Amino acid sequence: VFLSCTYLNNPYDNHAGVGRIVQYDRDLNYKGVLWIGFTTHLIVHLRFDPQGNLWGCDCQGHHMVQVAPSGELMPETKFLDVGLASPCFLPDGTVLLADYFNGDTPPPGTCIRPIPGSGGQIGQARLYRFERDGTLLDEWSPESAPEPFNFKGITHMTLHPSGEFVTYTTETGKRVMRFNIRTGEQMPDLKVCPGQTQPGVMDRDWAIAVAYLSDGRLLLTRGETIEVLDEAGKVLRTYSLPEYGWAMIQPCPDE
User: Fold this and answer.
1) With contact defined as beta carbons under 8 Å apart, do 60 and 83 qualify?
2) Nearest to 143 by CA among 107, 104, 189, 110
3) Nearest-angstrom CA–CA distance, 206 and 183
4) Tens of each residue's pLDDT in the chain, 255 residues
5) How far is CA 148 from the centre of its chain?
6) Does the global pTM surpass 0.85?
7) Alpha carbon of 40 to those of 15, 37, 73, 76: distances in Å?
8) Cβ atoms within 10 Å, residue 173
9) What distance lies between CA 24 and its chain's CA centroid?
10) What whole-number distance in Å separates Cα of residue 151 and Cα of residue 157?
11) In sequence order, what are the residues at sequence separation of 6 or more whose Cβ sits closer than 8 angstroms to the Cβ of residue 55?
12) Per-residue three-class SS string for the chain
């Protein structure tokens, strides 16, 4: 088990600190820690690529972390100077990355690096496809959802087993959205949570993180629960979490 656990040590920015990834064995016994020297903020979205490299995203600082199976930190690949996250790996060897942010207003208490040359925008909620060396191949502008603090774009994204489309959320928004990367078209939402988003109002009836299982079922964290959705968006099962939280989710190898 690998846990991104940034050492938050900046009294002026509650998301800033020294990057680290902690490793545990299958019984959650501590094994070791890897300190990341070049990141500046929270490392999120740890995922393994088909080659066994572990990826992590410092979207606030515009950095991408890759760790080899040997445990060594790999040289940083520069994709775009944008807050990229949610790596999804396509069968042709390319990688999808999504712009975590949208707009020009970071939340209170934290700093988000603006996109250079954008006039102060912190993000544009775009979706990108890259070669593994950072070469940009495709760029799309999917829809994003309103959320109470008006700064998030595509915050959590997962690739459908078909490789045809991605399912994604704007964290703390109401919509579970889908975008077809073969046609470049927005698809109907898989799910819409009840109620309407209002500025500054945290009703907690929203979508957070998503992850597909190999049979097309979707895992969705909701804060107090995890839902299992079928391909039509029907809730097949609900798991209760011990307390409320902004929970990431990642299937084990045996799902």
Assistant:
1) yes
2) 189
3) 28
4) 999 999 999 999 999 999 999 999 999 999 999 999 999 999 999 999 999 999 999 999 999 999 999 999 999 999 999 999 999 999 999 999 999 999 999 988 999 999 999 999 999 999 999 999 999 999 999 999 999 999 999 999 999 999 999 999 999 999 999 999 999 999 999 999 999 999 999 999 999 999 999 999 999 999 999 999 999 999 999 999 999 988 889 998 899
5) 18
6) yes
7) 9, 9, 16, 14
8) 21
9) 22
10) 17
11) 45, 46, 47, 48, 49, 64, 65, 66, 67, 87
12) CEEECCEECCCCCCCEEEEEEEEECCCCCEEEEEEECCCCECCEEEEECCCCCEEEEECCCCEEEEECCCCCECCCCCCCCCCEEEEEECCCCCEEEEECEEECCCCCCCCCCCCCCCCCCCEECCEEEECCCCCEEEEECCCCCCCCCCCECCCEEEECCCCCEEEEECCCECEEEEEECCCCEEEEEEEECCCCCCCCCCCCCCECCEEECCCCCEEEECCCEEEEECCCCCEEEEEECCCCCCCCCCCCCCC
Residues 6+ apart with CB under 8 A from 39: 6, 18, 19, 58, 61, 63, 65
Tokens 């939402």: give the residue: 189
